Amino acid sequence: MMDNKVFDILVVGAGMTGTALALGLSGQGWNVGLIESGDRATALQVPELVDERAEKVSDFEPRVSAISLASQRLLESLGVWQSVAAGRHCAYQGMTVWDGDGTGRIHFDAAELQVRALGTIVENRSLVRALFESVETSAVELMDGVQVTGCSHEDGQRFVELADGRKLGARLVVAADGTHSRMRQWVGLPTREWDYDQQAIVCTVRTAQSHRYTAWQRFSQTGPLAFLPLLTDNGDEHFCSIVWSQDTAEAHRLMALDDDAFMAELERTIERELGAVEAVSERFAFPLRQRHAKDYVAPGFALLGDAAHTIHPLAGQGANLGYGDVRVLLEELSGARHRGLSPANELMLARYQRRRKSENLTMMAAMEGFKQLFGRDELPVRWLRNTGLRWLDRLGPVKNRIAAEAMGLTI
């Protein structure tokens, strides 16, 4: 019979949020287990680049995250950011957003906020690798390459069943197993969700002009297009990660184009802000669906990150909302430990839910509002949004407060 262990806290899902939480909890002194269906060797593997200077669009991972300063500070406190910063990343100092169907435009500048950067674009695999490297030298017990087959609650304790026959006990189980969380389903936490009838196309491009350390986003009726700045290992400023959200039919048309035709569409849509698009990597598309759990907690159980909420990528806030969950849950569990309380204390878990649910719902509502506002073509609506963008761009203090909120800062 296999050894069945009992932990203070079990985290299921070793992605960007679950691994960060496990590291933080271990640092607080909890006995932490981290379960991952994938293999740690895959996460730790250094990509085999054709040229180590990463001079080709295929050398970048298509999926990237725009890490806010608040998220960066969390990762710094976990001892992870140093490894991320030593690898390939791009801190951006500017952000320009405009209405493709009008004249409204707004620009955010790090200098106006008296910070070095508005955020940092990081390839997801670099974040995961840095987190796993930290786990390897921590007290976290990582169980990788194993499937979870069930979750139960018996006599005031949670149990997680594994495909290899083990049944692990924990006072608190945290589900960080992603958008289609099986843990959430097994525990019976329902969600509110709706399909945007859109797909996000992601890829990497090389442009004729430098991105100027600026994130560019153009809105149109059928969805936003973002050019997120990247840097090669030798500092080449002509690469960007593309996130192009389009209505499903239009996304299918774009995905069916050959590379030359697709690059021509990109140039036209971004209005040649960065000159010609000279090269494009393999493209990927995934459907967009907003999902939010009605409750984040149950007895001895909590949801984290995408298992609790998914959001439209138009503002690049998905990873930062997840790291916001990590920060608050770490704060609440630290307080519980100092007071000698169980990590499953109901009042503590309720505070975590209250603090995060309100902020996540506010951001989700704002993103839905933006999508609806820019998705309408009526002349009065177009006039209103373009006038509003121009007006806001001239109001420095108000504009800077909006930017600070998005960065997780207070000014």
TrEMBL record:
Pfam families: FAD_binding_3. GO terms for molecular function: 2-polyprenylphenol 6-hydroxylase activity; FAD binding. Its cofactor is FAD. This is 2-octaprenyl-3-methyl-6-methoxy-1,4-benzoquinol hydroxylase. One of its GO terms (cellular component) is ubiquinone biosynthesis complex. It comes from Marinobacter antarcticus. SUPFAM superfamilies: FAD/NAD(P)-binding domain. Belongs to the UbiH/COQ6 family. One of its GO terms (biological process) is ubiquinone biosynthetic process. PANTHER family: UBIQUINONE BIOSYNTHESIS MONOOXYGENASE COQ6, MITOCHONDRIAL. Component of the Ubi complex metabolon, which regroups five ubiquinone biosynthesis proteins (UbiE, UbiF, UbiG, UbiH and UbiI) and two accessory factors (UbiK and the lipid-binding protein UbiJ).
